[in-house]
Design a protein that fits this description.
- There is one protein chain.
- This protein is mainly α and 153 residues long.
- The protein has helices at residues 34-65, 70-92, 95-110.
- Among the domains are: 1-26; 33-110.
- 46% of the residues lie in helices and 0% in strands.
- Helix 1 packs antiparallel against helix 2 (70-92) and helix 1 (34-65) runs antiparallel to helix 3 (95-110).
- It is elongated.
């Protein structure tokens, strides 16, 4: 078996390539598929809203029957609704991500398989040898040359 990313030979029992770390097999786990996760999140959201509102109505009925101050019951109800709204908002923030992942997984199913492309060796990409640039000090060091002088002076 060969890695589709780097082209190296990989034993059949491995799930990842030793050379580049690329995943060799797709995950078939149904719990991590975006479609299943989206269904689970929407079901959890529905259950939280229905059960949460049922608990709130029951709590208000019990508190009002026990002659608890109406201001305290109102405060408890508002805090409970704020918490319920926060939990629902956190779950709703996950829905667009799951929808995008679900659409991408459907598009990936219908796309034609890509050809395996091996990357060229890095030495094949090197350019030809270039002549070095002339040094800027070649013509400026003339002042250090010895000046011929007359022997008598």
């Amino acid at each position: 078996m060969y890695c589709s990313h780097c082209g190296t030979s990989v034993p059949a029992d491995l799930r990842f390539c030793k050379n580049c770390g690329e995943r060799l097999f797709a995950d078939d786990d149904a719990d991590v598929k975006p479609g299943k996760m989206l269904n689970y999140v929407l079901l959890a959201l529905f259950l939280i809203v229905v059960v949460g509102l049922g608990i709130l109505v029951g709590l208000i009925a019990v508190l009002l029957n026990n002659a608890v101050n109406q201001d305290a019951v109102t405060t408890i109800a508002l805090v409970y609704l704020a918490g319920l709204f926060g939990v629902c908002l956190m779950l709703l923030r996950q829905v667009p991500k799951l929808i995008d992942a679900r659409l991408k997984s459907h598009q990936a199913k219908y796309s034609p398989p890509q050809n395996v492309q091996l990357y060229p060796r890095t030495t094949a990409q090197l350019e030809d040898y270039r002549e070095p640039v002339m040094s800027v000090t070649d013509h400026t060091t003339r002042i250090f040359d010895k000046v011929p002088s007359k022997a008598g002076e």
